[in-house]
Amino acid sequence: MKTILSTVLLTFFFLIFVLPITSYAKNTVNPSILNTHIELERLRFVNQTQDGSVKRALRQLYSSQYADIERPYKALEVVEIAARESTPHEEQFKGDAHSARAYALMWRITQEKAYREKALEIIKGWAFTFKDFKVIKGYRPQKYLESAWVIPIWISALDMLNRNAEGWSATDEKQFESFITKLHRYSRKAHRDNNWGTSAMLADISYAVYMQDDQLYYQQLKKFRYYLAKLTNPNGTLNADYLSDPWHPQYTIIGLLHTAEVADNQGDRLFNITFPNEKVPRLQKVLAHFTSLFTGELENPKGLKKGNYKGAHNNKQGYQIAFNAYSKGKFEQPWVKQLVDSWNPSNTSPLFMMWDRITHAPEIVGSNMLNNEKLVIDN
């Protein structure tokens, strides 16, 4: 009996005084999805850019259906969805989220009040109306993935707006929290060892930052390392989806890039994670490998079931964030400029936040454009 008691006491002492204690105390920075407050303030100057690619992106934004102030929106109580195909309800749901975010971005750029009012109208419309999903065809867990895709877009839209200003009340805030929490109950079930998992992680970290949930936030830092190790290889290839087509692997990459950017805005540098016996950050190795595929320097991998990797990045987003992360400091490599120079996106994926060529333009994240303040990218 004495031996058992001594063992218990020693174990207790070890747990309390020897093992490191995980602290979840963190003052979460808002806004940060995907931009900080100072970056959002700088957006009013982006029209002054001399960068041709940013000018082109601005023209695309201004002519986009999502930024059209006359675009009709329709909040639905029940959103009918299907696995592996789009439904009118799904297109409305995602489209309205993108429009809210595009209007918020247009408000930041133009300072025109009508854009802010329209963004808030859509956000409140859905927050007060939406009740649930209904899977009408195929895999029932599809609603988990649909929720994971849309959560960051809705939160980012609200992140861009000044919630302390006219038109947004405490009641609105509470209802939006309820709306996002309802979606998060589904998205947290989307974790898989493929692109579903990185989308779920992005939804989780966005939700954690918005809700000031420090424990959930730190769990996603661990999840990032897990998915980076599980889904990628030291040579930059992917384990899941790599041979299926050129777009599902990019969903994985975008999920990793956006998650790392949200964490970076909180002061946690996930872009530079390395693994034992590797000197170069794993995410950089992935991006370098896929740059070679996108530019045609590497041929399609043997066994690719459909599609062509060459030029496949031109309908996907996130690569301006990659450029910003790796274009400075000790990890700078020629592929970084090659990736962005060969990247000419027009219509990007509706599954993730768009317009990073604008929101993360050099004038926004790296120049003295506002009050002589400069954002340091390498934390």
UniProtKB/TrEMBL annotation:
Protein known as: Alginate lyase domain-containing protein
Molecular function as annotated in GO: lyase activity
Domain Alginate lyase residues, every copy: 83-278
Coiled-coil zones: none
Entry keywords, A to Z: Lyase, Signal
Any single Gene Ontology cellular-component annotation: periplasmic space
Family annotation (Pfam families): Alginate_lyase (PF05426)
Top-rank taxon: Bacteria
Organism: Alteromonas australica
